[in-house]
Amino acid sequence: MPRLLWPLLCVLILAGCAGNPEDRPELTEADQYREASESIESKNYLTAIDQLKELEARFPYGDYAEQSALDLIYAQYKSVDYPATVVAAQRFMRNYPAHPRMDYALYMRGLANFNMEKGLFDNMVTSDRSSKDMDAAKDAFRDFERLVARFPDSEYAPDARARMVHIRNQLARQELHVARYYARRGAIVASVNRAQYVVKHYQQTPAVEEGLAIMVKGYQRLELPEQAEKSRAVLALNWPESTFLDDDKQVDLAWWPDEDEGLLSLLTFDLL
Known about the structure:
272 residues; mainly alpha; elongated
């Protein structure tokens, strides 16, 4: 009989120790925030996100509400969920417009937008994104621009400025990509317009050099020698050793199509 009762007694003891989960006291706000912080420190970001969301649901106006909202932005970013990072940052800025760490929220939203279109392959190799859609990059530029304007002395301002330079270079290269496309299809006016836009709006970027070269070739094709010479002179003055100039300081674009090639491309939609 004792041998039969002993296993049953052990089961009853374990069940009593476990108790009913519903009978357990709920964590306090401080304890729940501490658990979320520990998850972030141990890089368990997905767990931290769940914990922070639960904390927000239980204590929307608690003592840790503002800090947990900032931590959620960070955890979302570290989990590589950039759209969720943008949403979390926007929500923080809307709920706490006068918060002393507004610069951080702006910076993180900019970072998320900056990385929005990067995929696994982009993280493994260096790729030229100038030929792709740059809407997220433009959003990132506006975020960083706003950060620098509102918080010029922020610890995040130097990196924001550097990223703005990078984004401007990419946007300018995108305009050149479109200008080349138009030129190859024989749409010379559209190509010149894109090149002009680069020269006017993206000064001090490397793209200006090729933009001027495209303008020269475009004006020559349009039989506007005066405008072509002005553009060539500006190019030669500012980039005397440009690879787009030959030994006689005349513009030479290896990819520029002749008139027949441009017409063929236009008629065949670049299929030939």
